Amino acid sequence: MNKKMNLLALAAVASCALTSGAAFAQDAQGPWLVRARAVNLDSANKDTTGLGLSVNDKAIPEVDVSYFFTKNIAAELILTVPQKHDVRASTLGGKIGTLKHLPPSLLLQYHFDAPGFKPYVGAGLNYTRFSSVHLPAGVGIDKSSWGAALQAGVDIPLSRNLYLNVDVKKVYIQTDVFAGGAKAGTFKVDPVLFGIGLGYRF
């Protein structure tokens, strides 16, 4: 009897070990995920200066690095290179200058458990730095912007470590506009960014 009990116990332990080992092997991916995306930036262009200010929409490259603290919780740093935009004023007949902006964002994400794909949502903070600002004489802007960033997306496994990624973000970017040394109003870019790309987990 004792021998049979010992054999049954040993079989149960082995079964548990194999099951947990298989589950661990399935989930045993590294904590890092790097993605490269092509992103369409669609600006909201909300202006309170009365000039009808706007910047052009454009396609931009984007790279992000995510670190998973747990299976479901990750932090993502989103990066690109300074992007050049034309600045237009509808009341002045069209283009009045150019500027560049660099908008890194840091978000905290929750990744859901779903069979066959990995949806996620995120929220965090954006910092935008405006540079190379070329506007009419006497017109200037505040060169720093802090705002919220919201995100939803999905990673679709293509292989064990490679993912197809689809992602949409709403980023709140605004700057004060000055004319003749006095504040003329606020210009909100507040873009929606739709991206598609590839990710690699390691």
TrEMBL record:
Report which superkingdom the organism of origin falls in.
Bacteria
The Gene Ontology biological process annotation of the record reads:
transmembrane transport
The residues forming the signal peptide are 1-25
**What keywords would UniProt list here?**
Signal
Name its cellular compartments.
Cell outer membrane
Which SUPFAM superfamilies does the record associate with it? OMPA-like (SSF56925)
Which InterPro entries does UniProt cross-reference here?
Enterovir_OMP, OMP/PagP_B-barrel, OMPW
Query: Listed GO cellular component terms?
Result: cell outer membrane; host outer membrane
Q: What is this protein called?
A: Outer membrane protein
Q: What lineage, starting at the top, does this entry show?
A: Bacteria, Pseudomonadati, Pseudomonadota, Betaproteobacteria, Burkholderiales
